[in-house]
Amino acid sequence: MNIYSINNEIEELIERLIDPETGEIDEDVADELDELEMSRNDMIENIALTCKEYLASAEALKAEKAVLNERQKLYEKKADTIKKLLDRELMGSKFETPKVCVTYRKSEKALYDGDINKLPEKLQNKKVTITANLTAIKAELKAGKVIEGAELVKCNNLSIK
């Protein structure tokens, strides 16, 4: 029996509780009402406990997610450090064995060390503090525009497969 059917039965019993002819309370109906109230209270308690359990599980998962995020950041840092070591050793050369292949991919990125406030608004990233929108600066530089303090730099990006 679900909570809605219990509530409906309680309403029906309340209507039958008082005898319309005599105005007296029907004891049998009163007993049934007490039982249903108890069932309803038990059901509400179980629903509330289930809700508490779900919230506790959600909180535990949230805590675990934070721990996993920290572990993820740690492993990413370790991988970056090892990539720098590989890059220093290989100096742009390809390396391949049956188990691993290390290659370089050519790319470009924009660097900006000028005054952020002198940049046109479309070339600024507005966050808590204003930073240069390097993607937009790169596009402008590639289009042939001159931006004081900006330049295109050739890069080699390490790739491990």
How is the secondary structure organized here?
Blueprint: H1 3-17, H2 27-90, E1 95-96, E2 101-112, E3 124-126, E4 130-132, H3 134-142, E5 150-160
Antiparallel strand pairs: 1-2, 2-5, 3-4
Order of helices and strands: HHEEEEHE
Number of strand elements: 5
- Side by side, the strands of the main sheet go 1-2-5
Oligomer: single chain
Q: Kindly report the average pLDDT value.
A: 86
Q: Ends: how far apart?
A: 58 Å
Contiguous runs where pLDDT drops below 50 for at least 5 residues: none
Please identify the structural class as seen in this structure: alpha+beta
Describe this structure in words.
The structure is a single chain. With 161 residues, the chain is an alpha+beta fold. It is built from three helices and five strands. It has helices at residues 3-17, 27-90, 134-142, and strands at 95-96, 101-112, 124-126, 130-132, 150-160. Strands 1-2-5 form a three-stranded antiparallel beta sheet. A hairpin with a 4-residue loop joins β1 (95-96) and β2 (101-112). α1 packs antiparallel against α2 (27-90). The radius of gyration is 35 Å and the shape is elongated.
Which short descriptors sum up this protein?
single chain, three-stranded antiparallel sheet, alpha+beta, two-stranded antiparallel sheet, 55% helix, 161 residues
Summarize this entry quickly.
By secondary structure, this protein is an alpha+beta fold.
